[in-house]
Design a protein that fits this description.
Elements (H helix, E strand, L loop, with lengths): L11 E5 L6 H10 L5 E2 L5 E2 L3 E4 L4 E6 L12 E7 L5 E5 L1 E4 L2 E6 L5 E9 L8 E7 L10 E4 L2 E5 L6 E3 L3 E5 L23 H10 L4 E5 L28 H15 L4 E5 L20 H14 L5 E4 L10 H16 L5 E2 L11 E3 L19 H10 L5 E3 L23 H13 L5 E5 L21 H14 L9 E2 L4 E2 L3 E5 L6 E14 L7 E7 L7 E6 L3 E16 L11
Parallel strand pairs: 1-5, 4-11, 15-22, 16-17, 17-18, 18-19, 20-21
Antiparallel strand pairs: 2-3, 5-9, 6-7, 6-10, 8-9, 10-11, 12-13, 13-14, 23-25, 24-26, 25-26, 26-29, 27-28, 27-29
Helix pairs in contact: 4-5, 7-8
Length: about 575
């Protein structure tokens, strides 16, 4: 047994040699390995029973010397079955070089699971084993992201134990995600995996728990942005994925997940820059594209902690909605575990979330007003339009973006410090709209259009502090899955209110006030109230217990304020 984490493997790995010789040779080898294996029919091997922990991925390795053709095309899959409920998870094997195939599993229910392998290749078929999944050991490590209605939800103790989740992505394209050949672009070279902890710490310092990676043509060779980085659409490098890319990406996913965070991935770029699979020699749905989808699903599918968008400016692609929906269907059909997949601008049942484009005037299904959203009202309208699944503004609302945009923009201050701070609160107070923040590059960027020494730049410390306060306020499920907006509960101020279905949980956000009147009529019982200054370091100011009715609270100074009324502890989740 070996951990393999130093090589970028996320899961615990167990290796077993393939059996390509006679049954007599197999028996001899089994006799030597009786502490690990027992003989079954044909090539089939019964793996030693294993113990696992909820939300920790397990991994097995098989050797196979008889494969024909391209090893990435060898079809083999594993079916896991939960003994007490019959729940099943089916996952493909994937090739890792040196005649080795791997398969992975993450438990979604506690208790015993059994598995068996199947393949047209006899060396990969007929293997069996069992896994006993124990409760998670670390409360900060959570499961797969899903949704309840239009709210994001995350799995806690098992697949059925859900908590509301605030989905906000951070991108630092000044560093770590630089699109051009810059030495800090993590996916630019295998040696840069050492920057992952720094990027994660930077994400946390800026107030977020989800960081961003754009892959593009690095799927085939690390650092490649588009088909132009290859000799042509028939380049043999395009016949297989780059294992180094997957090693680094898996390390990033694991690093965030073990710390209670997540990773958001853009699979491709845009068509005009030749960053989409349209430009592969056999096209979007060709053999190369299908091979890559299968490989992504097999390697990443069992791993908790990530979501994926197809790419950006997809309207440039021919058949954009149909093709990206096909991509999501292929991923979902192959992965075996749930992940949020999106395609910016398209409303389709194949996507687990509605991803909005943000420039206006394009023939998308989902689009904000020009350079939008314009205000809270627009965000709430989008949330109320789509109640069956969550939504996300996947147009990056980066700091001062419209001040450094090369063309004329109405209201260029929309994403200044105040605009960014209020936008992230509006998105959550509208019921849980997902968002995308961070900063673009001031340095030379191959694709522009941001001018050097422009006003985009890094977040000022005051904005970092405000984003951290937003994150810390909502952590651990404060956005209840049953909460709905009831803004008429705010009196004599610009503000918003979310109310739980049990009428025991209220959250208010009010702007530019030193006092506020709130209506707690209908509240089930007296509840504790805390106030938080949205511009300051996170601190809960105890305002005592409030009874049902109307209350005017003196907040002491003018700022944007948050009030939380009710018991928001984990133990009270079941009441809402």
């Amino acid at each position: 047994m070996s951990a393999n984490t130093a090589n970028g493997f996320v899961c615990r790995s167990y290796r077993i040699a393939g059996f390509a010789s006679s049954r007599r040779t197999c028996a001899a080898m089994i006799w030597l390995l009786t502490c690990v294996l027992t003989m079954t029919n044909g090539y089939g091997i019964e793996f030693r029973d294993r113990e696992a922990v909820m939300w920790r991925c397990e991994e097995w390795v098989l050797e196979n010397t008889s494969w024909p053709g391209n090893p990435y095309d060898v079809a083999a899959e594993v079916t896991f079955a939960h003994s007490s409920t019959g729940a099943r998870r089916k996952t493909p094997m994937f090739y890792v070089g040196e005649n080795r195939w791997k398969f992975r599993f993450t438990g979604t229910r506690n208790g015993a699971w059994t598995f068996s392998t199947s393949s047209s290749d006899p060396e990969l078929a007929g293997h069996t084993g069992s896994v006993m999944v124990r409760p998670r050991a670390n409360a900060n490590v959570k499961g797969f992201l899903t949704h309840v209605g239009n709210k994001y939800a995350i799995m806690l103790e098992d697949v059925d134990d859900l908590e509301g989740y605030v989905y906000q992505v951070f991108m630092n394209q000044q560093d770590y995600e630089q699109q051009h050949e810059h030495p800090t672009r993590i996916l630019g070279h295998p040696t840069r995996a050492k920057l992952i902890p720094t990027y994660w710490n930077n994400t946390r310092e800026n107030g977020f728990d989800i960081y961003f990676f754009a892959v593009f043509y690095s799927w085939f060779r690390m650092g490649a942005l588009g088909i132009s980085d290859f000799s042509g659409s028939a380049d043999p490098e395009l016949d297989q994925p780059d294992p180094a890319l997957f090693d680094t990406l898996e390390l990033a996913i694991k690093h965030a997940h073990e710390r209670g965070g997540r990773t958001h991935i853009w699979a491709w770029g845009d068509n005009d820059r030749k960053q989409t699979p349209n430009h592969l020699g056999d096209g979007f749905r060709g053999k190369r594209h299908r091979r890559l989808i299968h490989y992504i699903a097999a390697r990443l599918g069992p791993l908790p902690g990530w979501s994926m968008n197809f790419g950006f400016d997809t309207v440039e692609m021919p058949n954009a909605e149909a093709d990206t929906a096909w991509w999501a269907d292929e991923m979902n059909h192959t992965m075996g575990w749930p992940h949020i997949l999106t395609s910016r601008g398209w409303e389709d049942a194949s996507f687990a979330a509605n991803s909005y484009a943000g420039f206006g005037g394009n023939p998308y299904d989902l689009e904000t007003t020009d350079k939008g959203p314009a205000d809270y009202q627009e965000i709430r309208r989008h949330m109320e339009t789509h109640k069956r699944k969550p939504s996300v503004y996947e147009e990056r609302h980066t700091y001062n973006r419209w001040k450094c945009w090369p063309g004329s923009v109405s209201d260029p201050d929309r994403l200044n410090e105040t605009g960014c701070r209020r936008l992230i609160w509006w998105e959550t107070m509208a019921g849980g709209m997902g968002g995308f923040f961070g900063h673009f590059s001031e340095r030379f960027n191959r694709y522009g259009p941001f001018r050097p020494n422009g006003p985009c730049g890094y977040h000022p410390n005051s904005l970092k502090r405000a984003f951290c306060t937003h994150r810390d306020f909502w952590k651990n499920g404060r956005l209840r899955l049953g909460m709905v907006p009831e803004n008429d509960r705010v009196r004599d101020a610009e503000g918003y209110c979310l109310v739980g279905t049990d009428r025991k949980h209220f959250v208010f956000f009010v702007e530019d006030v030193d006092s506020v009147t709130v209506d707690l009529s209908g509240m089930a019982s007296s509840q504790r109230c805390v106030a938080v200054d949205a511009k300051s370091d996170y601190e809960e100011i105890d305002r005592g217990n409030l009874a049902a009715g109307v209350h005017t609270l003196d907040l002491g100074m003018t700022s944007d304020w948050i009030l939380a009324v009710g018991n928001f502890s984990t133990e009270s989740r079941s009441t809402d």
